């Protein structure tokens, strides 16, 4: 059977080599990014995995992520960069913690040991170092190492993408933009995947409020690669942040067939589409089903967020919470990112699982006592824990306490990572709590926050509804 498995994997290698002109050992060297492997097939599979990562897509013509990862290990079991990309992708997915998952922790150690036993390039050695730092939760230093790589090797897409994702997890908006801006001049049109930098740069621009420029750059990317789901995603953000719902609806529908094939991101793009229809429960269905099917953490937190938003809008989603709890509860002890933890808490609270809610909070409090180099755990005590406590107070109807906990953090919430659109949920939570509080100053604060919101997002129907609620409650 082992022989048959090996034959299948090698068949995948040959298929991958034939379907696309993937970079060979010699081609990687010619691009100034040599790979320390004697296997031409392994180098092509590395390119296949990287291509799918950039496109957010399990490409079955290449064997998908799983097929390519299995095949690259068969083609060259000692290929350091093969281990870096395979283990690195599992780490950035945040679906598992090296604290709890010994297999994943062992994969990190094995990669380090392989690197130490071989004569590999300085660039590859830095990749191993960055991956190891990220596995320990030291996101800032991991990014520093990836940026070191990009200084000498600005066309190293893996370093650029890993850094982009890590900056996203830290809410490092300016860094996310500038990291791409620094390397853009080096990416000539003939380079594979060059057009996809448009989407990466666009996202950094929109997160730093350059909405017009972000839309322009994303559209340039889509003109070159219509299937660039990240550029679509960026435009969806622009229309959300500028409250241009009609444009957003038309755009997402007109390009659905293009971005739907990017299965890793499709559910998240449906989430953005659903935001335009927030008042309609039925629009939760499409990405709800996809969330269960993919198991992708991005899809899971989106489902949590949408239910929480719907509930704040007065929609009964009781049964939905119970369904989602089956997905989130096994991750209660992971504590990979604060962003994930806070979304898992939403589900525990919505499902009335008080024991799970308390367990999650206590676990976070314990890790905050001795965080070590883990950047997320360092933030837990000052940001993560009080945010969780605010949500618990809101769930218990203690709206004044919610405001007292959440309001001092409003300009630090960015540190938990995610996007402005995703973090807007906490702006809404603060406004709802302030309006419901019996404290007159909190009620005034709520109205002030709504005026502020209206100035940034004019013509937002959500803001209008909240303003009407404020007037009805406190004439």
UniProtKB/TrEMBL annotation:
Name of this protein: Tetratricopeptide repeat protein 38
InterPro entries: TPR-like_helical_dom_sf (IPR011990), TTC38 (IPR033891)
Statement: the UniProt record of this protein carries the keyword Repeat: yes
Family (UniProt): Belongs to the TTC38 family.
Organism of origin: Mastacembelus armatus
Keywords, alphabetical: Repeat, TPR repeat
Domain of life: Eukaryota
Range of residues in the leader sequence: none
